[in-house]
Design goal:
The structure holds 2 protein chains of 2 kinds. By secondary structure, chain A is α+β, with helices and mostly antiparallel strands. Chain A has 4 domains: about 1-190, Four Helix Bundle (Hemerythrin (Met), subunit A) (Up-down Bundle); about 265-365, PAS domain (Beta-Lactamase); about 370-445, Helix Hairpins, CATH 1.10.287; about 450-614, 2-Layer Sandwich (Heat Shock Protein 90). Chain A is built from 16 helices and 13 strands. In chain A, the strands form 3 sheets. In chain A, strands 7-8-10-11-13-12 form a 6-stranded mixed sheet. Chain A has a 5-stranded antiparallel sheet with strand order 2-1-5-4-3. By secondary structure, chain B is an alpha/beta fold. Chain B has 2 domains: about 45-130 and about 240-300, D-Maltodextrin-Binding Protein, domain 2, CATH 3.40.190; about 135-235, Periplasmic binding protein-like II (D-Maltodextrin-Binding Protein, domain 2, 3-Layer(aba) Sandwich). Chain B is about 45% helix and about 20% strand. Chain B has helices spanning about 1-25, 30-35, 55-75, 90-95, 105-115, 165-175, 180-185, 195-200, 210-220, 225-230, 250-260, 270-275, 290-300, and strands at about 45-50, 75-80, 100-105, 120-125, 130, 135-140, 155, 185-190, 205-210, 230-235, 240, 240-245, 280-285. In chain B, the strands form 3 sheets. Chain B has a 6-stranded mixed sheet, sandwiched between helices. A 5-stranded mixed sheet of chain B has the order 8-7-9-6-10, sandwiched between helices. In chain B, helix 3 (about 55-75) packs antiparallel against helix 12 (about 270-275) and helix 6 (about 165-175) packs parallel to helix 13 (about 290-300). Classes of the chains: A alpha+beta, B alpha/beta. The interface of A and B includes residues 79, 110 and 114 of A.
């Protein structure tokens, strides 16, 4: 394009120069023509003047011999004028033939001068004088004739030159008018050519820019030439770079999005400014899953909406620290959509995008960790209790045996009054209770090793229920009646277990069920087998008073009891024995609606363990 | 290239012409800036008369550069006046208020005798001579070789007041004891030396008399003169045409005139003008230098005081 512009401008300049040169040349020619005309007119005048002078001299000659004869000085003056006039002709530029004519004329004038001089100076007889005068006349006449010829020639040339000059002037006028008409058209043509040369590639580039703006990074500019082709190449290169950059950005964004979305921890991005402070701007799937909301639902909430009141109360202080630039780590509680409160460990800090401040919060559900901590704490508790119980049992057991034997011997004394005997009997009962407690403690702390064998759970349950319900399926009492409902699963496979320990557990649960019903009630036993899990489930339900969640949470803890005379070790021991068998025990209860203890035992639960022991 | 240069020159000329035209359209500027004009000091005028040695116009042409030179050197307006006849130079001193004149030798002698003019200088020719002599000549083919052959012939004198053009023939005829007025068929005064020579050459006259310097000058241009003419007699050497001033001319002007002429050959311009004039320099001249003329006139029997009064033309 640069070359094209240079060529166009050069051509335009050259044309302008040529036009200007031709114009000036034409004007100059016209001026020269007119100069020539003026000069020819001057020549004409000069020759007329010469003729006039010649005629004057002729007249001087005529009057020389009359009484009107002029003074010699005047005659000489006329002759000198004549000479000067012809000499003036030489000052003009003449072509050679004209110059020769003028030379001839001058020569003739000199002859005439000489003849005149001779007439003036001669002193001779009349005849000789007349002859000289006539000779002078003759020269004068020839001179006049020659002058007239030259004047006629000059006039003819003048007319010819005038005609040529007029024609040239006409041509110059025509040329001027043509130039005046053509120059703007040429300028417009060049301007249009240049503009179109610019407009087309600029439009192409503009179109490409629009395509680029719409995201079409694969669009390429085609069909441009010269510098615009280079520009198009650079443009395409830029589009290519942009596309590559975009691809990298997308890749990076996808990676971070994947990281964000697949993170196990909940990630929140929160607004910090104005009324929108705390607004959830973004949240990942883990956050949604953790809180029981969908992401869309979360994005309509503020973080305060899922904070528990205690956590929310501390929010302003945390936000202040965040604004100060601190990175905060804390344990808080959030409530799920269903109202469940769960513990979280949050880690959050502030960041800024385009002058807007946001909080990045990473929340980790620590429910299981808490439970594990509680379990460890409980195990520690049990271990401590066991060690204490063992110690105590060893220290108490022997003295207590002595006391018991002594008390039994005393109670055998016949001398004792009935009153004392009853008292001693109560003492002995209490000693036996202490022994039972010690036994239970020892059992809990160091449970006896199970003796695994093929066990029919239904049979064990049957035996246990018979021991509890001695009169069949009803446990009669003074004020109440408790029915036993049995729904034993058929084709229940045998499992590897210790039947004695299972019986201890079932009896413990059945007795608790009976104890849970102060009035009439029903104790239900149900067994089943799930082929998929290869587990036997035994469920023992009562229609008693039931229990709330807080009690349910502590029911398996040792030394926790709701009974007035309970040791708080029954369920703890039961849980431990079932877990020893690789099973689980759980409770489903509600206040006033009874409770169901559900035991799940794997079919081969004790297999490995019995072999280990062997 | 020449075309371009010529075009540029023409353009330049056109521009200058336009500027001049504009300048003409703005009258008054130059007048205002020029201020009051100081009256120029009155220049002295010196009018010098010339005798027609040759055609009157050629004579004027020959002396004009000299006059311009004198104007320049003297700071005076030196003007020339050509007189058709030699004797008129005498009248010119009273009629035309002529201040000085280049006299022929005999004319000076007459003027000095009648008007008391004072000679100051004369030229030295390119041949180193400051004198000339008269020649009496005929065509070779005329058969005229002596006075005897001249009977019934036509004689072209120059002027009555010329040494070469008249005194020589007078002396020639006197020596032969012949009265030319009756002896010759016709005698006339051609007016100039040049015409006298040409008249004989062109057979308008049979015998002629003229000064040798003019004879030589014409012979240079026209070979026929020496080829076809033959000289029969010579006059004595007399001083070349000399410049003499009127006797009452302001001495300072006379001094300036004399100095300008006598030192003319010392500067380049003067030397060049002298060259064209046909002279090497001007030399100081006094009346005594004209002794040969006086003697010649006396020899012929001319009374200078009465000469030229009532003479037949």
């Amino acid at each position: 394009m640069k070359k094209k512009i240079i060529i166009i401008l050069s051509v335009f300049s050259l044309l302008s120069l040529l036009g200007g040169y031709y114009l000036i040349r034409a004007i100059d020619t016209s001026i020269s023509r007119f100069d020539e005309l003026v000069m020819l007119h001057q020549v004409e005048i000069l020759r007329e003047h010469l003729m006039l002078n010649i005629r004057k001299v002729q007249a001087d000659l005529y009057t020389q011999s009359t009484r009107h004869a002029k003074d010699t000085e005047e005659i000489v003056g006329h002759a000198r004028d004549m000479e000067n006039t012809v000499n003036a002709c030489f000052r003009c530029h003449h072509v050679e033939d004209i110059k020769q004519r003028i030379e001839q004329l001058k020569h003739h004038i000199e002859k005439f001068d000489h003849a005149l001089s001779r007439v003036l100076t001669m002193q001779a007889g009349e005849a000789r004088r007349r002859a000289e005068v006539e000779a002078a006349y003759k020269i004068g006449d020839e001179l006049i004739e020659q002058g007239n010829t030259m004047i006629a020639l000059t006039t003819r040339r003048l007319n010819e030159r005038t005609e040529i000059a007029r024609r040239d002037a006409g041509q110059t006028r025509l040329l001027l008018m043509t130039l005046i008409a053509v120059a703007p058209l040429l300028s417009i043509g060049l301007a249009v050519s240049l503009l179109s040369g610019f407009a087309k590639p600029i439009n192409a580039l503009l179109n490409a820019t629009k395509r680029l703006k719409t995201g079409d990074l694969d669009y390429r500019v085609k069909g441009l030439k010269d510098e615009f082709a280079e520009l198009a190449f650079a443009f395409d290169d830029m589009a290519g770079s942009l596309r590559e950059r975009m691809r990298e950005l997308e890749e990076s964004e996808r990676r971070y999005r994947l990281l964000f979305e697949s993170a196990a921890d909940a990630i929140f991005i929160l607004d910090t400014e104005g009324e929108q402070a705390g607004k959830i701007v973004n949240a990942n799937q883990a956050a949604a899953r953790m809180h029981g909301y969908t992401i869309e639902e979360l994005l309509k909430l503020k973080i305060q909406d899922i904070d528990t009141p205690e956590t929310a109360a501390k929010s302003p202080e945390r936000i202040k620290r965040l604004i100060r630039g601190e990175w905060i780590k804390a344990e808080v509680e959030h409530s799920k959509k269903d109202g469940t409160i769960f513990p979280l460990e949050i880690s959050c800090g502030m960041f800024e995008v385009n002058g807007h401040k946001y909080v990045l919060a990473i929340d980790r559900d620590i429910s299981q960790r808490k439970q594990a901590e509680e379990a460890i704490q409980r195990a520690e508790h049990i271990r401590t209790a066991g060690e204490l119980a063992t110690g105590l049992a060893h220290e108490i057991k022997n003295p207590l045996a002595g006391i018991k034997v002594t008390m039994e011997a005393l109670s055998e004394e016949s001398t004792l009054s009935e009153e004392d005997r009853i008292a001693l009997s109560k003492v002995i009962d209490e000693i036996k209770r202490i022994e039972g407690l010690i036994k239970g403690l020892l059992n809990f702390a160091r449970p006896p090793k199970p003796h695994y064998t093929g066990t029919n759970v239904n049979s064990v349950l049957e035996a246990a229920s018979q021991l509890v319900f001695k009169s069949g399926t009803r446990l009669p009492g003074n004020l109440r009646t408790i029915d036993l409902k049995k729904d034993f699963g058929r084709d229940l496979p045998e499992i590897i277990a210790d039947p004695q320990q299972l019986q201890q557990v079932f009896m413990n649960l059945l007795l608790n069920a009976v104890d849970a019903m102060p009035g009439n009630g029903v104790v239900s036993i149900k067994t089943s087998y799930d082929e998929k899990t290869r587990c036997i489930t035994a469920a023992i339900s009562d229609t008693g008073m039931g229990m709330d969640a807080a009690i349910q949470a502590k029911i398996f803890q040792p030394f926790f009891t709701t009974k007035t005379k309970g040791t708080g070790l029954g369920l703890a021991i039961s849980k431990r024995l079932i877990e020893e068998h690789g099973g689980t025990i759980s409770i489903e209860s509600a206040k006033g609606e009874g409770s169901t203890f559900r035991i799940s035992l794997p079919r081969d639960g004790g297999k490995g363990r019995s072999s280990d022991e062997k | 290239m020449e075309t371009v240069l010529s075009f540029m020159v023409r353009t330049y000329r056109i521009t200058i012409a336009i500027i001049c035209f504009c300048a003409l359209l703005a009258p008054g500027c130059s007048k205002e800036s020029s201020g009051p004009v100081e009256p120029a000091p009155q220049r002295q005028t010196l009018l010098i008369g010339l005798v027609p040695e040759q055609s009157m116009f050629k004579q004027v042409e020959r002396y004009e550069p000299l006059a311009r030179y004198l104007s320049l050197r003297m700071g005076a307006d030196v003007k020339l006046i050509i007189l058709p006849r030699y004797e008129q130079i005498l009248n010119s001193f009273t009629v035309h208020q002529v201040d000085a004149a280049f006299f022929g030798s005999f004319t000076f002698v007459l003027a000095h005798a009648k008007l008391g003019v004072q000679v100051i200088a004369r030229p030295v020719g390119l041949d180193g001579k400051s004198t000339y002599h008269g020649l009496l000549f005929v065509r070779k083919d005329s058969g005229i070789r002596s006075v005897r052959d001249m009977k019934g012939k036509r004689f072209a004198f120059v002027d009555r007041d010329t040494t070469a053009g008249y005194l020589l023939p007078l002396a020639y005829f006197k020596k032969a004891g012949v009265n030319y007025k009756t002896y010759l068929k016709e005698s006339y005064f051609a007016g100039t030396h040049e015409d006298a020579i040409h008249d004989v050459l062109d057979r308008k006259a049979d015998i002629g008399a003229a000064k040798n310097t003019e004879f030589e000058r014409l012979a240079t241009a026209d070979s026929r003169i020496k080829a076809e003419l033959v000289v029969l007699a010579r006059s004595p050497e007399v001083p070349e045409n000399s410049l003499a001033v009127r006797n009452d001319l302001e001495p300072s002007l006379k001094e300036k005139l004399s100095e300008a002429l006598l030192t003319m050959h010392e500067n380049q311009i003067g030397a060049r003008i002298l060259q064209n004039f046909g002279a090497l320099r001007f030399i100081e001249t006094t009346d005594s230098d004209f002794r040969p003329v006086y003697d010649y006139a006396q020899e012929i029997g001319i009374d200078l005081s009465t000469w030229n009064q009532g003479q037949v033309r």
